[in-house]
Amino acid sequence: MSKTVxxxxxxxxxxxxxxLHRPSSEFESRSDYLDHELQIMKPKIWGLNLPGRxxxxxxxxxxxxxxxxxxxxxxxxxxxxxxxxxxxxxWDHVNLGAEFAIxxxxxxxxxxxxxxxVISSGFINPRANLAGNxxxxxxxxxxxxxxxxxxxxxxxxxxxxxxxxxxFKGGSKLVNLTSSGVAGGLLVFLGFMGSKSQIGSLFTWAxxxxxxxxxxxxxxxxxxxxxxxxxxxxxxLAKFEKRWLAxxxxxxxxxxxxxxxxxxxxxxxxxxxxxxxxxxxxxxxxTEEGWQLGLPNMQHFIASLPFAILAVAMWSPDFLGHxxxxxxxxxxxxxxxxxxxxxxxxxxxxxxxxGTALGGGNITSSWGTYxxxxxxxxxxxxxxxxxxxxxxxxxxxxGYPMDVTVWRPVMSIALLVGVFLPLLEAGLQMVKxxxxxxxxxxxxxxxxxxNPVLAWALTMxxxxxxxxxxxxxxxxxxxxxxxxxxxxxxxxxxxxxxxVGMIKGIPALL
Length: 510
Prior knowledge:
InterPro entries: DUF3360. By secondary structure, the protein is mainly alpha-helical. The chain has helices at 17-20, 30-40, 62-90, 98-124, 141-146, 151-167, 170-176, 180-212, 221-239, 246-260, 280-284, 298-313, 315-329, 341-357, 368-376, 381-398, 400-405, 408-430, 434-449, 452-464, 479-500.
């Protein structure tokens, strides 16, 4: 326990963070010190927060910063590869290749990192989580392109809808109306499906090495040993409560094993140091350069509309999962440093429009590969956000580190131990009784039948009306909380999915 010291004439509620701060040597353990730091922080919302006065940098901040850098490089690369393939197929005059995709990833990692990691979440509003990537939308990008959507039109619509939802506090309202059972089921499903996908991708990569490099022998076993050793490493870290080290340590382990078993020949350094073209006119002002699409017209906005609605509708469950990680790992009395859902929506909305206007193509959401490791490491948002922004800029300029982060062993292991396994664990922790297990089970079942967003909306509606889960819960809710808001959420999600063809067996209505 810490030695309690008060400034003369003031109680703790009146003292500033700098007055309440105590050196780590006064605490029995590092964990106690980190808990105390979270409890004494009083960040300014949309004001100036300064290191030393309002927060501190700790070496634990490096963990979410490194994890977030690996995760976002992987995600951005996947997004731009999907856009390039889809738009090249859709438009006859468009030919977007790997060099284009890397250039746009670099655009996304430079200016937005400075504005929305370092400045916004670091200094201006430390309760707004960083604006990262909307992972669940990546599989849809091909369909978005083929539907005739325009990346800039999609970004403008998504930003406008997000700002409206944030202004009316809709995001936090939906989070508060989601019970622990529904939230737990959602996290379990996302964790399980994500883990399954990354394990499958790792084995597919290992299987492909023989033909890809004309080898006389198979390297299929490489994936097995990478996973086996990292299961042990992750288990040891969990036992000693050091899971926040999982992404860097397990990624390094994966590299060592891959090289040791002969798979290192697949890692190639092709991204030379440099800075991409940061002039928006290059990207959007001509059909001869950049995206080769020109500026969007009304037809592009119409084609982008249902996808923008769907993306914003998917924000609430995404944000919910990240805030839950803080609540599960932070001690009591840390409400002032918990991620604010509505402020995060504001940041994501503005970042979406600004980043894409500069030439980017990301579809943004709350930054999970940063928040989840940060919550596990018991660190607030600002210190790691600043370090993450700086790391993104360094990686984007250096070039070659991008090749390492998108190499399959690093990519899959980082996502497994940094995102999907923690999601699975958090979901299981939230299912604490029979009522919540029923809600969780039906949420998981509905997600398998349709998708996690529609499952969240449906089970929230059923749960809030006592049809599943806690039968006493509806008595504490108003009619709007039981019927109107959940009903609207379900209707909007269903309409958007029907419009873009996300319901199995039903063709797209638009």
